[in-house]
Amino acid sequence: MVQNKLAERNNSNKSWDFNTDTTLVKLLENNAQLFSNKVAMREKDFGIWQEITWSQMLEQTLNFAAGIESLGFEKSQTLMVLGDNRIKLYTSMLGVGVLGGYAMPVFPDATPEEIRYFAQEVNVKFVLADDQEQVDKAIAFEISDEQMEENDLAHIDHIIYADPRGMASYPHTGLISWEKIIAIGANRLQEEKGLRDSLLSRSEPDGPAVLIHSSGTTGKPKGVVISHRALLSGVRNAYLGKAFDFGEEILAYLPMAWVGDFAMTVGAGVALRFVINIPERQETVLRDLREIAPTFYLAAPRSWDNMLTMIQVRMEGSTPVKKLIYHFFMNIALNAERIQLEGGKSSVMVKLLRQLGELIVYGPIKDQLGLTRMRNAFTGGEAIGEDSFIFYRALGVKLRQLYGQTETCAFNAIQDMDEVRLHTVGRPLPNVEVKINDLGEILIRSGSVFSGYFQQVEASKEALQDGWLHTGDAGYLEKDGHLVVLGRVSEVVYTSKKEKYIPNYIENRLKFSPFIKDVAVLGKNKDTLSAIVCIDKESVGHWAETHGVSYMSYADLSQKPEVLELIKSAISRVNKTLPSSLNLRRFVSLHKEFDADDGEVTRTRKLRRNVVEERYKPIIDAIYNGNMTVEMKAQITYESGEIGVTERILKVEEV
Predict the structure, then answer these.
(1) pTM for the structure as a whole
(2) Does 29 score more than 90 pLDDT?
């Protein structure tokens, strides 16, 4: 059955036969042979798109492998990768995979303490740093032999830097440029007969493709070793589920340390021969998105929300006539999409008006955003708000939700193009089995499931039982096979009245409001539920400007009576969808955002509940003691790394 489906979608100009008994470098070699001069990757530098072909990408990968091996890098060693998305970093990670080593990308905004933890875990001796800032981080977490404690990090042998700017005067003995590594590798390949064939044959299907870390919401992040076979199984399953096709044009902007980027940019990118475009900087992503107009785009709900906010801001500043036309056609499309979600159909007149709206409104907006060629658009990581989801589908962007994990190479379930529901993540992908155990936990069995956590035997045994991955997520399957994800099983808690609830489920629905960026729902062993809310400064700030509400700072804005009413309205809307016994009764609008540098959220912005509940205990006590205000001191981490404290009198609001 599977082979028949593959045959139907495959044709002579497509290179991969969906055999997972291979490796990324073998597929890269195949692309270089069959599509030598086709563009593989583009990177914007100084405002100009620089391109490399599949043959150049292969040479760069092999040159790096040969070069770093000459420095003493061996099989099963680790290369820590620090920096934003760059061609050099991607091909270097592939090069480490060629040698059977572990490429370990780390979030570019990680602190030296976080980097130290990862480095200690695998005893890192090699670091690849994008630029001077990342080199400084690598040097900062080194310690002298005198300072070294048992199991601590002693020394980095080599720090490889990709960008030479600012590096000329650095005295570190282990510093070496990426260009020099490439030159050393190229010389080796030219002089050593048989080295090229040796490199192409060393990696194994069950060998490591990458070492990615879990988010670490309930403890320290765990290393997830993803093999070539598991990665390609995930890509195959997603292809069969029609998530993407051969030759997609994508924008590689997601953090390299997130499994979604590696699975899409490297896994699917190499296997399905994508054209991979890398933005100049994170700040230019939306501008570069418009230039590229990708055919595939994956973004977190917050990114889609931000894009929608930008559209709304521009329309508010437009002429009355343009605003009238915009609202007329958008309301038609929004109503039609809501009817379709409820199982209804649009009238002939509505269909004709939507065609006209495509010419006047929808098409120009998509052109401004770079969404004109979008065939496959996805959101994942958490639930997306109803308003945002319906808006993009009304615009003609067939936005869908997907569900995946680091341990399953990012792909578990997706929604079909024309069968979407707001509360589900779609059906499990082909070759992915899903069942729910007695605890309500989602279990998954597939070739894309990882083989275990790095050097954590007990944690691996706990996660992998009887051939099934215990995801740690709570959910259920509907009668027609659609999967509903509620939140983390570990977060199922009870009120003092023994009412069961999942905070994350309620938090996601509160974040459907464009005015709420983060929220922590409280209520464990309490009579009622309450919340600590972090406003979205951009959305709330824009609202404040258009409604004549002046403010001086985030802290000031968060305590404005008008803003507190916005939050109260958002909570009231969510309360209507919950049992009355689980309605949120009180809340506090925090005077700062939850910050990854302060340990309150992970780098992927997942709430570290234990940290928040401990740090903001005075607020929690005030809420449940019936106080109307609370004096709060909060720790903040500045860009310099220095830690400070802010003080504020916060209001406790009733809903």
Answers:
(1) 0.84
(2) yes
